[in-house]
Amino acid sequence: MIVIDFSFAIALFSLSVIGLIMAIWLLTKKDKGKDLGLDPKFIWYCSICTYTYINTKEEVISICPRCGNYNKK
Q1: How confident is the model at residue 9, as a pLDDT?
Q2: What CA–CA distance (Å, rounded) separates 68 from 56?
Q3: 54, 38 in Cβ contact below 8 A?
Q4: Is the pTM of this model over 0.85?
Q5: CA–CA separation, 50 vs 52, rounded Å?
Q6: Which residues pair with 52 in a beta bridge?
Q7: H or E element: which one contains 51?
Q8: How far apart are CA 54 and CA 25, in angstroms?
């Protein structure tokens, strides 16, 4: 039978759990090469209140979320 100290067993168990969590985190990390840039065609400027907002719908006319004004590209 192998005899180990209780504090050594707790430390070994804690390190193995932390190592397992880190390994899972590294293997499931999916956004390594993800580009977070924004296409300029989705950026709209309100002509009335000068609010800048993002509308990802490909429309010709957009409604400003702040003042409700219709804006045209």
Answers
A1: 95
A2: 17
A3: yes
A4: no
A5: 6
A6: 45
A7: none
A8: 32
